[in-house]
Specification:
The protein is an all-alpha fold and about 140 residues long. The protein is built from six helices and no strands. The chain is extended. InterPro entries: IS402-like_dom (IPR025161), Transposase_6_like (IPR052909). Pfam families: DUF4096 (PF13340). This is Transposase.
Length: about 140
């Protein structure tokens, strides 16, 4: 079961007027913006690849493309600005505190542990080409 309803009615009332419109343009109408935003939120909350997006949010390509467009055309920035101003969050001080990352949950990749990746590589580096020790 996919958890939907992440975007509350109150939040949607703030950001809905900021969504791009195809009014006056030819072509197919845009998919429901709220459902697309729910899909984007689901993807970032779970950390899954775009291709694993559940069908309830529509085709993953559509959700990714809308996310990409919102990033480029400033839709996200306008949404963040409206929410910040409505909630009284100072753009410089409070937001940095809200978005800080706790380093205790950031892990290094297993290959960053410092062990040689090829067996004997450390030994080969410590000897010269004639087989003698460099020491």
């Amino acid at each position: 079961m996919v958890r939907a309803g992440v975007i509350s009615d109150e939040l949607w009332a703030l950001v809905a007027p900021l969504m791009p419109s195809r009014e006056g343009l030819r072509g197919r109408p845009l998919s429901d913006h709220r459902r697309i935003l729910e899909g984007i939120a689901w993807r970032f909350r779970t950390g899954s690849p775009w291709r694993d997006l559940p069908e309830e949010f529509g085709p993953w390509q559509t959700v990714w493309k809308r996310h990409h467009r919102f990033s480029i055309d400033g839709t996200y920035q306008r949404m963040f600005d409206v929410v910040r101003s409505r909630c009284g969050i100072d753009a410089n001080d409070d937001l940095a505190e809200l978005l800080s990352i706790d380093s205790s949950v950031v892990r290094a990749h297993q290959h960053a542990a410092g062990a040689p990746t090829i067996p004997g590589r450390a030994l080969a580096a410590a000897t010269d080409h004639t087989g003698g020790s460099l020491e």
